[in-house]
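Module 6 notes. Inverse folding takes a fixed backbone as the condition and produces residue identities as the prediction. Think of it as a translation problem where the source language is geometry and the target language is the twenty amino acids. Below is one complete input and output pair. Work through it position by position during the lab.
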């Protein structure tokens, strides 16, 4: 038999609910957001529908409420396991790529709009930026 979903918190904005949903999920608690889409589309309906509902399964209610209480009191800490090996960042550039000013290899491609996550178009010359000296240059 499937477990029922129990509302453990309500929020007036979907963003607030997503933050705590992510925190609960990081602790291994399965959770869902109710009425998120209607409030995202029509924010003034938040009061009418009772806000965005953070819901967990019946078996996780006690643990979720305890964690939410610790977060509210400011005593919640997220402990990272030191034994986890993280994969090295993807190598996007050849090893010969370096900043022409400081010769640092700590560089990244900049998108069309200037940010590191901006849009890069094939017919636009790629721009690079150095994270050490801040210099920006175009691809030759």
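Target side of the pair, the amino acids:
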């Amino acid at each position: 038999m499937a477990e029922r979903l129990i509302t453990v918190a309500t929020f007036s904005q979907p963003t607030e609910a997503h933050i705590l949903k992510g925190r609960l999920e990081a602790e291994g608690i399965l959770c869902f957001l109710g009425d998120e889409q209607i409030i995202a589309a029509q924010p003034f309906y938040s009061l009418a529908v009772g806000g965005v509902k953070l819901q967990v399964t019946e078996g996780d209610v006690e643990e979720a409420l305890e964690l939410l209480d610790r977060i509210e009191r400011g005593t919640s800490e997220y402990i990272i396991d030191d034994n986890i090996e993280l994969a090295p960042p993807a190598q996007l550039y050849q090893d010969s790529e370096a900043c022409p000013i400081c010769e640092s290899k700590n560089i990244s491609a900049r998108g069309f709009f200037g940010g590191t996550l901006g849009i890069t178009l094939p017919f636009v010359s790629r721009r690079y930026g150095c994270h050490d000296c801040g210099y920006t240059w175009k691809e030759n």
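Reference fact for the lab report: Residues 14-26 form the longest helix (13 residues).
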